[in-house]
Amino acid sequence: MRKKKYAILAVIPARGGSKSIPRKNIKPLAGKPLLTYSITEALKSKLLTRVVVSSEDKRIIRTAKRYGAEAPFVRPKALATDTALAVPTIQHAVREMERQENTTYDYVVMLQPTTPLRTTRHIDACLLQLIRTKADSVISVVRVWDKHPYRMKTIKRGRLVDFGKETKENMPRQSLPPVYLRNGAIYACKRNVLMRQNSFKGKDSRPYIMTEEESVNIDSVLDFQIAELLIKNRRSKR
To answer: Which Pfam families match (predicted)?
Structure first.
């Protein structure tokens, strides 16, 4: 374990039971397993104390270790189903690590492997914001444009009904009030907020804004193709 001013645990949740894309977390993306992009960036962080992968899948665990992450426990199968929630999954990881180390962490970060364009810079910026503001959490978000709530509809009795009320019909996107969506890249919070309040947010949650490109979230084959293009483009500029 690296010595830091604060004890900060990063957990990368990577179950093997994805239905949309089997073993999505180790599917090759631009020459490397998807999971490894999160591992590589987390290990370069100047603030994280420890980086662990939480999985029930032996192949994923082997892949994580091969790329430098630790996987010092096996996630219970009950926390690796399609309906398993993120909070108890990360709580399990915290309990396991604190039991093994006989210590208590100050902060916990969840880094989902499905956002491979998140970098060390983003991780450390989130953590610095969390520490400096003394907020309960900092969560990464992306601004919503074309899928703005004002443009969304519900269907009632076969008729389209506005989800949100525009001040003018069909407003140009530049005139829409700013709205942000969690992009799934970074959830950083105080340890006690997660463990005692069963929440990543707490009462004082701050935003860390990322671009649309940085926020690509992989859930389909098309997402893989988009992410691969962006990663190759990023590499070509180095």
So the answer is: CTP_transf_3
